[in-house]
Structures are given as structure tokens and as C-alpha cells.
Write a structure and sequence with these properties.
Distance between the termini: 27 Å
Strand content: 25-35%
Structural class: alpha+beta
Shape: elongated
Number of strands: 28
Number of helices: 12
Length: about 550
Amino acid sequence: MKCFNIYKKALGAMVIALAFMGCSDDWNEHYDVPAAGQGDLWTAISSDANLSNFAKVVKACGYDTTLVGKQVFTVFAPTNDHFTEAQADSIIEVYHQEKARNIKDRDNSAIKEFVQNHIALYNYSVSSASNDAIVMMNGKYINLTANTFGGQNMLTTNQHYGNGVLFTLSNKVDYFPNIFERLRKDADLDSVANFMYSYNKYSFDEAASVPGGIVNGKTVYLDSVVTLENELFDRLGLINDEDSTYWMVVPTNDVWNKLVTEYQQYFRYDKKVNKRDSLSHANARMALLYGTVFSRTKNTDAVIQDSAMSVNAVSYLRRLRTYGTYDAKYYQYDKPLATGGVFDGTENTVTSNGQVMKAANWHIDKKQTFFQTILAEGESSQRLDSVDKLSTQAPLTIVNVQSRNPFYGKLSSNSFATILPAGASSNTMAVFNIPNVLSNAGYDIYMVTAPALAADTLASTTERLPTKFRVRMSYNDENGDPINSRNWINLQTRLETTPDAVDTFLVASNIKVPFCSWGDNITPQVKIIVDTRVSNSEVRSGAYNRILRLDCIIFKPHED
């Protein structure tokens, strides 16, 4: 069957270099002693009375030992003239407060936003022609010119020492957070931040690290690399990536709490679903976040005036394969800057890799994102077989409508299923799986049937006769067991096809099921049962036949 499949399991990663860690791309540049200068960086910094405030922070955060090691660094140290002792003490206080809360050094704000913001791996020098961006230990790109660093004037330059180069600055360089980091700095957005940061995972990257020898039978690394992995980056967008540019519409805590409370009812899983509580918790929140991140590479200033395509949107050419129709337009929005558009009324903050767009008024409707029309094809599909073959005993064949046929272009995917009776006196019954059905969400259910002429323009009179059929529905109970066939829900007890016509039947309105099957690797639990209801006498008289030609079953979100 054709369905959406958006909850992909993937991992995004970024490299964090710690005090004792760094890149291993170039051993010589990283470890060789610069051509000029004596002593080490820490001795030079700690012996300079005008750098005492900077030195105080470096020592308090444990980087004094880093700056006497074998690794090579470039340090940009603000002097006491504009970096005061009170400022230094404030940074040290943050360091101790976060240490007391068991925040690791790699995430400690004092280290990441101040110390590592003024230290780069490798040695850098400037000349009159210098104008480049260098990567700091925290991964940030900061502009370095002949006379400035990060917009601050350099007082001294190119001071070479045994393990690196020292520059002095007129003032400290402010830390410029990216979108992911900015979420944590706004109290109105901490619900989103807490959820996304809960997926952070660090792992040691042995392949990228530089071994330094064996001690007590274990490898000791001169240069270690730790990788931050967060699977949400690949699901939503690489909002931590300093090399990309995004806009992210972010719900305030009030919006988050209201919509998560509403969305939780749509993701109730039965007891046979593995980790159902965790799945329900995550999906209700991901449903709100999907479709909120926009790559500025694709959404240029000109394009975004007309339409905004989020990272989760599917291109027009892929819609048929993904959703079963070119008309599906999920996760992209028309006129986003107009009144009522998805960007309307947001409070925007520039970040190092784009823009956070704080939204106290939410303009992204669930029917534009996760609450989607489900199209189950009558015929089998390579992506998902909608026919329940264990329950369907009647012979079923797939018919492809030829391009010269008058019904070409009038049926979904130009194909349908022909379901024949199992015997001369038997009625036809077929069972179809409907995936990704949300719980407690109202659906209008449609069924589309095809005429015999769509298969063969020379079909006989008997083949072209109408048929009568009924439609029932089954779903799982709380324990994950299908409801008993005696309790199947009757949607329509008598429908009749029209000879030589494509029929679209509304078989139910605002139908809701108690448990959902939304997401990857979740077995569809909602079933539609179709069986013909034609008597032997009606067949003998030539009034009806028992051939059911099913194009598709559609679950469409109910319009209130």
C-alpha cells in the first residue's frame, strides 16, 4: 500500500574537542613546536600581569594543565583593561554551579562559551593579508583578520611559544550560539530544549583519535575525539551544524504544553507494542516538531515568499511514491510570511547558523503535518502489502490500466485489484490492512471501485454487471488482540457499484479507533473487511456478479 513513512531512525553527529582533546588531521601542525619562541603558553599567560583575569578563569576551569602539554594551540587572551576581575569571577561561578549540577566539562557553559571560545587547536599567525575564519575548540568559526579577532582589536599578535601562539585582545569575544544551543538560553523555550537535549549521547571515536602508547596494557591517547550524537538532528534538521543555515519555528512553553497534551491522545499504543509508553511520549512531541526546520539553502529569499518547504517535506516528484498521490503536500506551507502563515508573528533571534523563530501563536496545523490522509491501495505494493493475505482466501489479481484505456488516469496508480469468488456459489471476502492510523482521531473512510472496462475494453456483459457488498472494520483492543469477528464494526451493510463507472463511496464519517499504529515498524492493526452480498438467484438472473474491483481505501482526516 502507499503510506507515509517519516519517523526514520538515524543519528546525526558533531565533534566536540575537549581540553585534552583535539583534531588529528595533521600531526605535525598539531604537535610540532613552532619555529620561534621558548616556554609554553600557560607560563606566558600566567606571568603577564595584564592577563591575570583571563589566567584566573583558565586555571579555575583546569585548562592551565592543557596549555603546558604537547598539543599546539592558538590562544586569544583578553587583557584586564576591558575583561574585569568581576567578569572573570562570574564565569568561574557558572563553572562551579554547573559542576555541582553534574554537568560534564564538555557541556559546561564556562568552558564551552568562554575558554574554548578563545582557544583554537593548531598554530595560527596573521599577516597584513589575513582574513579568514578559524575553528575554535568549541567548534565555532570566528573571523581572524590582520588586526581583529571576532570583531575585537588585537593588541599583540604572533607571539610564538613552545606549544603554540598567543594573541592579546582589547576585550573578550562573545559566544554566538547556534540554533540548538540557543534553545537552552531562552526560558520560554526550555520545554523544547529539554526534550531535544535528552537525546544527546557522547561516544569516544577511536578511529579519529591519536594513540600515544600503551600503559598497563591499555592504549593512552594523546589526542582523543568525543562525538556528540543526537538522533533528532537527522529527523528534524542539522540545527547544531555550524556549516549549515536554518530557520526553526519553535513553540513557546505555553504552546508546547497545550499541543502536547492534545497530541498525546493520537499516540496511544496497545500493550503488545514494544516500549509503548516511551513511543507515545516521543511521538506526541515529535509530531509537534516535525516540519518546523527550514534549510535556507532550499528556502531562498525569493522562494520563501511563495512557499516554505521544511526539512521533512517531500519533493513533488517523490510524493506519489511516499503518499500515493501528487496532491499530498505535507510539511510545506504556502505564503509563510503572510498573515496567518507559519512565520507570522514569530519573535526572531539570529544565531551562528540561522535563526530561532519563537512562536507564541502557532500557525502549523496538524493536518499540514502528521494528521495525514492514508491511501491503501487495493492491489499489493512493494512498499507495503495492504492485502491481508492470511485472511483473504478469495483469488486476487492485479490489473494495470493501459495508457490507451479510457479509464487511464482515473484510478490511483492506474492499477487496482480484482477479487473473484472462491467458488461458483461463494461470495467474495477480502481483508485490507490500514497502517499509520492515529488513535482517537476522526477519519472519513472512502472506498473507490473500478469497472470491468478499466481492465478490458472488450469485457463481457456478465463481467460488467454491478455487485453488492458490505464494509466492516476491525482493530486491536488494549491487549493488542483483534476484536472478535462477531464484534466487527459495520460501516456499510449494502453498497452497489455502478456498471462502467468509477465509484467513490463514503463508507463512514468521523470514525475513531482507540489505539494507533503510527510509526516505523509498527504492524497495522486496523483492518477493513469487504465482502460481496449477492445471492445465487441474483447471479443466475444476470442482475449482479460477485466480482469486486477495488482501487483503494482512503482514510481522510474528518473536517469539523
